[in-house]
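Tutorial sheet, problem 5. The two components below are modelled jointly, 269 residues in total.
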Amino acid sequence: MASLVTTLSGYLGYRGREGHWSFLLHRITGLGTGLFLTIHILDTSFVYFAPNLYMEAIKIYQSTLAGLGEIVLVFCVFYHGINGLRIAYFDMFAPKNWAIPSERKTFWWTLALSLALWLPSAGIMLFNLLKNNYGLFGG
Amino acid sequence: MATTTREVKTPANYEKFAWKWMRYSALLLIPLVWGHVILQDVVVGVHNMNLGYVAERWASIFWRGFDALLLAFAFAHGINGVRQVFNDFIHGEQARRVLFVVLFIFWLAVSLIGLIALVAGVNQQFPLNP
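Model answer (structure tokens):
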């Protein structure tokens, strides 16, 4: 219990700026993607175990709330991927970059690249959501 | 800012294997997961999904293989990530062993369920309900 309190208060209170934000974002996006992945493996397995339930699951995914969650999920996947590549590259090929100046600079690059990939995807998904759920754009 | 680095020998144990696994699987997961997400969520979209779509997709051995790789690499990467997060909260050796076994069983069960569905395919008589 003590370690839980220490770890959680460290998560919130540690003032490591970019390096710490990067760590937190990597954890949150990873855990979020992992949670969805678990649900997604199980709902996809319905195609064999319970085909009628599969269509129920798809109906839930087509709802507006799930659609907004899907847009967040795609950000998580892009951010976690780019930041993961950054970590793997630093760890295995350029450990000198594990220093505050390059950690700070590359955090912003990681965020910018993630947003550059995410914004067009989010736009298309939002368009599809408005078209199919609200009849906009001639849907 | 000047930095100093030094090389140290690390023992070849499970933790080292897991550390490498997270990084090498990540390289493979970039094309697998991004390809999957961009194709299914952005290009096709959830409003065009149904049993027929899955059946058509899995009629191709390429896409079944693609999904098998996703299942194998993405889920194991995720479960080991969860283990690393829990290890930040759980410090007792006994508790960590229990956590390891629980996560391993969970990983094995969900992977097997996914694998059975992936091999067996869509379980409905043609013509498929939309």
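Marking note: The radius of gyration of chain B is 20 Å. Full credit if you identified this.
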